[in-house]
Specification:
Layout: E1 2-6, H1 11-19, H2 30-39, E2 43-52, E3 55-67, E4 70-75, E5 85-86, H3 89-103, E6 108-114, E7 129-139, H4 144-150, H5 153-164, E8 168-171, H6 175-189, H7 200-207, E9 214-221, E10 224-234, E11 237-245, H8 254-268, E12 273-275, H9 283-290, E13 295-305, H10 307-314
Length: about 325
Amino acid sequence: MKVALEHFPLPAELDAFLGSFPRATFFQTPAWLDALRESFTGFGAAWLVARDGAAIAGAMPVVRIRKGPFSRFWALPFGTYGDPLARDETAREALLDGFFALARSPLCLDGGVVLFRGDSPARIPRGARVSMAECRLVSIDRGFDEVWKKWSSKRRQLVRRGEEAGVAVRSLETEEEVRDFHRIYIEESRSWGGVHPYPERLFLELFRRRAQGAVLLGAFLNGALLGGHIDFYFGEMAQAWQGGMTKRAGEFEAGAILIRSAIEEACRRGCRLFNLGSSGGNRGILFFKESLGAREYRYPVITFGQRWWALVRGRGGE
């Protein structure tokens, strides 16, 4: 079995392979990797591919981030899921071994892999650190009516009140609407510390990939945008990714109305899970997600890096 980086695998071959894994996520699709490549300078998105002869036995999305003569190597960056998709355990381990070999090169500053769907590999590189990340999942395989029943009565009441006041949800239709949403998102990000707010370019690149599973929703009141949400759909799982709300949105429960619309869309698409993402330890966010009937799910993240680079970053360098 041969493992190698492939920057542009044949689209039809890759699509057929990914389509055979119902538990694959949007983050493991060309749509996400292409959006990253187009949005960030120095991002080289590719696939680590295991082949048994000419056939794909496994594939793993990776991003190499250039920093001068050095690089960072992630599957994937920003905490998104980079699990290897493999026909069997042999191919999975071969992909992970190949990934670790590339990421441990002398010119690689740091790296890591987010294993949302799998256990830690049998062989973990010396010096690597294994931690557990969390997210909140909502089971939607019995349809939206069953999901709605699990929302707290207070949350359902607030949603109905917002809708009666005239809040309406629809897909964002123009790039100008996406820019308006991004401005709201940036403004709200300041209230939570502005931790790596994503650039407008990424929102626009995702908007251009609406046919590939990215959905950008807006909540409107009398024609004014109260807030927006970006959700991803692929296979069995829908993923809530980013949202942004105006101060006025809270008066009308616009955030919960958007989430409800996104879950309804996931049910129409035949998804079985809706991933509300990580809460970062924020108790208010946790309370909100649990009021929607979400349950905790934990998964391993393996990270490693050069010691000197960790010291530089610890002192505020990047």
